[in-house]
Amino acid sequence: MPQAIAVSVDVALLTLREGRLQVVLYRRENPPFQGALALPGGYIHTDEDEDDGAAARRMLLAKTGIRTPYVEQLKTFADRSRDPRGWSVSISFYALVDSTVLEGSRSAVLEILPADALPRLAFDHDRIVAAALERVRNKSAYSTLPCYLLPETFTLSQMQSTYEQVLGVKLDKSAFRRKVLNSGFVEEIEGAMQGGVHRPAQLYRIPQAQRLVLRTRTL
Amino acid sequence: MPQAIAVSVDVALLTLREGRLQVVLYRRENPPFQGALALPGGYIHTDEDEDDGAAARRMLLAKTGIRTPYVEQLKTFADRSRDPRGWSVSISFYALVDSTVLEGSRSAVLEILPADALPRLAFDHDRIVAAALERVRNKSAYSTLPCYLLPETFTLSQMQSTYEQVLGVKLDKSAFRRKVLNSGFVEEIEGAMQGGVHRPAQLYRIPQAQRLVLRTRTL
DNA sequence: CCAATAGTGTCTATGAGACATTATAGT
DNA sequence: ACTATAATGTCTCATAGACACTATTGG
Question: Exposed, middle or buried by CB within 10 Å (0-12, 13-18, 19+), for B64?
């Protein structure tokens, strides 16, 4: 006879604002950890959730109104001390969205805070955020993961800046452009330019075919 | 009121034999999947297991007699179809051991089969093995992970061969030795030599301090 | 013309891969 | 001396990084 355990899904939803990675949180209304900030999440409902990924998307939609970000399973935390009520399991995910997606959503109830300087979170959600940051930073060094933090169309300068903010290092412009353009995972948008006060920049996008493919070249 | 779910832990225990990665399996005595081969695993016992890692080590010890391999959480599989009895969760791990460790253990009840050519396994254990292979191969390209498949002491030729077997490619001897020796994560054992019929080779070991550190350099 | 950003060209140092050569054991 | 493996040396080619330079907009 197996022992049954409460299983929840929690999502570290990350975005880039003011030049830093930020986490989307909400304030808990009920105990335990009433009043503390927590990641969007909740218990799996075996009747409505097909699998853990579906549960994660349901939580995201319910708590943030976001429908289709990049979501990936991160790590599972399972022990007797993460929830004061006893042994529990959290299947954690991380998700990336471009910050404009968060504008319209129910940002009234949400708090979006810099990932590096968070207050103490509910449960072991600090650990989850730490793991998400580590994963994103590692993976960004050799993949196109940071592109999910960009809007549909973007300039190469924006793209480079995104990589720099995620990785925390300055990159050489020339080398960056060479690799990105040779790798062929961005597509030039014919004629489209984005102009500021100065010379306008070519706009690019990720080809739809590659939207879900993580190309692995060092940038 | 959270719904409680049966949570198990399964371990893909890998080793290198006859030049290929092999998986340690046992034959199930009870339904479901009675008579089928399965990964070592079982339900979490909330009274004896501190956390998921402890549960994994307990399963390994109980089913294979192995006490201290390299173990790492792999991925969690959670859906309603992986177990015919209904919604279930498996926190899966992978582990690496040098094949000599398996000699003494209860190899009588165990079957050790090539990972590339397995029969259909119980539950979704095929998926778990596939994920473990992918993870090990990916990680091996930029880390010292394959060293956990080697015995305590080894020659550089054995080490190179291990990498070649895991990665499935031939490596250049000169370049391999350069990188391994410069990286400083192997330690020469003074005077120790392993001789066959021909010129004996220097023996090396992983310094105790680095035993658990995965150095990340391309090999 | 100036400021500011977009985009390109070139040089160099590093290091991976290919391959040749030397070293040392047993028979 | 011969064979097989261990170990080292050298050359070349690709490329990352540094940096300088040119291009194009608004004011």
Answer: buried
Angle between helices A156-167 and A173-183 (to 10 degrees): 110
> Which residue, A9, A184, A28, is CA-closest to A92?
A9
Q: With contacts defined as CB-CB under 8 Å, which chain B residues touch A75?
A: 73
pLDDT in tens, A161-195: 999 999 999 999 999 999 999 888 899 998 778 87
Residues 78-107 of A with CB under 7 A from strand D: none
- Would you call B172 helix, strand, or coil by DSSP? coil
pLDDT confidence band for A106 (50 / 70 / 90): low
Residues of B with CB under 8 A from a CB of A: 2-8, 43-46, 50-52, 55, 73, 75-80, 86-87, 89, 91
Neighbouring C-beta atoms of residue A191, cutoff 10 Å: 7
Between CA A70 and CA A18 the distance in angstroms is: 21
For residue B91, which residues of chain A lie inside 8 Å, CB to CB?
76, 78, 89
Which residues of the protein have their beta carbon within 7 Å of strand C?
A 155-157, 173-174, 177, 196-202; B 171-175, 178-179, 195, 197-200, 217-218
* Alpha carbon distance B49, B56 (integer Å): 9
Buried (b) or exposed (e) across A117-150, using 16+ Cβ within 10 A? ebeebbbbbeebbebbbebbeebbeebbbbbbbb
Q: Which one-letter DSSP state was computed for residue B5?
A: E
